[in-house]
Amino acid sequence: MFSERSFVLAHLLLCLGRRRPPIQIRTPRPLSPLFSSWNDTYFLRYDWPTFPLAEKREAVVETLLQDLRYGLRMLARSPEFTAIAILTLALGIGANTALFSLVNGVLLNPLAYPQSGQLVALYGKTSGLDQAPINYLNFLDWQRDTQTFSSMAIYRNQDYNFIGTGEAERLSGYMISADFFSTLGTMPVIGRTFRPDDDHPGAAPVVILGGGFWKRKFGSSLEISGKSIILNGTSYTIVGVIPAVFTFYGRNRDVYTPIGQWNDESFRDRRVDVSAHGVGRLKPGVTLSQAKADMDGIAQNLAAAYPEADKAVGITLVPMKEDIVGNVQPFLIVLLAAVGFLLLIACANVANLLLARSMGRSREFAIRAALGARQGRVIRQLLTESIVLAGLGGALGLLFAFWGTKAVLDTLSGALPRANEVSLDSRVLLFALALSLFAGIVFGLAPALKTSRVNLEEILKESGRGLSRARHRLQGVFVAVEVAMALVLLVGAGLMVRSLAALWRVNPGFNASHAITFSLSLPAAPTTNSAETRARLRQFDDKMHSIPGVQAVSVTLGSRPMIHNSSVPFWIEGQPKPANFQEMPQAMFYLVESGFRQAMGVTLERGRFITPQDDEHAPVVVVIDDVFARTYFPDENPVGKRINLAGFNVQAEIVGVAGHVKQWGLDADAKSAIEAQFDYPFMQLPEKLMPLAADAVAVVLRTEGDPTAVMSSVRRAVEEIDSREVVYNVQTMDEVVSNSFAARRLSMILLGVFAALALVLACVGIYGVISYLVGQRTHEIGVRMALGAQRWDVLRLVIGHGARMALIGVAIGMGAALGLTRLMANQLFGVSAHDPLTFAGVAMVLIMVAVAACYIPARRAMRVDPVVALRNE
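Above: the chain's sequence. Below: its structure in token form.
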């Protein structure tokens, strides 16, 4: 049996002599990884300078495996430390991986179409909108004249009533041009897509089924081609089935029909848009700027050929991926930066734990150094332990990431574009692996470098105090960094909370409480005329008014607040008529019945609302909003004035002024190009436009109590009118308002969660450092108390040390937050990115938390018995 000092002496003697075989020493256990074993004999190993290359490689592998085994044994000896470190890292790595999976699925992955980088979204461009709907006749000209697109397609939302073997249901669908699927590069799984001879008036009605609908209703039957289904009372022949995985702008559709078969008169009027949009595929090698120049030339030619309809009408091209993602990129980048801070805080916390732990292993490292271990060898051993910790934390973090990603998608599936494409794919797994490796190096490097520089003489004398001051400073730096980054996250979360609070205080212009909206299908036959449509709507109104608890009801089309936008050009009677539609001002229009304003809870400022007497036999009237009045009738009473509605081709008298409704959202309404609004009586809709209402309408109800409670009665009443009618897209107006800032709400929730975790980690870091320092300074505290120091002096000493670290971190964090919060300025509403109240409040919270974290160690220090402390020393 040899003591540790004997091994040191043996090593020193060996170093003085010539090279010789390793010394055999029998001992019951090894002292460090520098020893290898065979039975009960342990050999002191040396790296002799002359090894063949193969033997060197084997030695390196053996050394790495030895480091790994020893690191696992050391972690197993400290289960509490290991569990805390792994959990801390798992939170940081898991949160980062979850956010990266969102960024990867939404921003990084290409669209799920062949050569998706060539796909471009096509829009019209008017004086009011940069991304306006496109006109069908204009689209045909674009398709014919373009030199830079290999193909173009147009599409329009169109839902259908389907009556199969069960109850009637509403199917989601698109009217599409023949080139739609070929432009996207999608092939049918059965049958064919549309041909040009399908896409014109008078062609035989044909339909393509979505794969999900095909499986749900037809059991994935392979004999489906050639069969017929009834949509909106018309028989359609099934010619093909699209794969179930196919999505367009994040949605699966049930059915697709040829848009060229639509017989509506306004569809082929260049002055009218019917909410159609386009998509095109660039020719190989063509850039977006070249395509823009090409399309600008086409727009100029159309303006010259059709000055009344197309003068000042441009064409907007947007890469399809950018169009789908929209403005979510800054939101995701802010969250990714925030969660990166959380990982750094976790790394700093684990580094502090490792540094404190390594102080207890100073004697072990000194003996290694005495036995010939180089500094790099010790650093490699400590980094191995750190990387093992990070690997275990990364494995647990992947589980957290899976849960976290699922929770975010469940919460925000409707507001996050491409949510269906988010998954933990190979890129995300590689990211998690790289992140774990990065974390292991980051939190392990500083403690390893600090610990590897040992004072052999002091350690062997079992003093070791020469290291404490430098290590305590490094621990203080880690704590200050944690506090600084926690402050940045807390400030970001505080600003988002204040933004959301400001949004909730915004008056939407209507009373969302006790109001509900839904869509109603009207299974009209192709021969249904305007009188029949009006009669059916009046019958529906009567049924709704008979339901107990219903206070007001209105059928509506056109715009619906925060749901759908429709505008029409106009000019004021008595003023010169503009030369074309594009030079006319535009206003949002609401086709409403007399109960609309009561159902929505909109205020009346002057005049009157629409009444039941404003029917198809009465003169045309409108009710404008106060923005319309201020903009076009400043300093005068607009009631009694007349406006010409170009899209409706009618002249209407203004009979009232109502309050403005936040059509575009609580935070975006003032930024929109079109703010002015007016109500138009539904029953006075011109005959040529009434067919638009023959298929489906929207409804707004106001109830005495919970609006969802009356929906069962609404469905029964609808079924009594016509069993083929379907109620769908049910939303309370409170939900509509809430959904309008769903992305902001999620941003606040995630930032709040990250900030709370950061605060907890910073608190744990401060507590750990102060607790360790109290343990290290027990003798000093005993001496102070023996010399007359009071318990409150000790309390002030300990808490003061923690407060100083926190104050330094707060000062650093304030500077960082002032710079970084500017990046989220576009995400804020009603509050400045440098809001002093938020900054001051967060700083106070952090300081109070730091003091609270110091209190328990301080209480323990106050109870130190001077006699016991001095005796133990």
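Residues 1-51, 462-467 have pLDDT under 50 and may be disordered.
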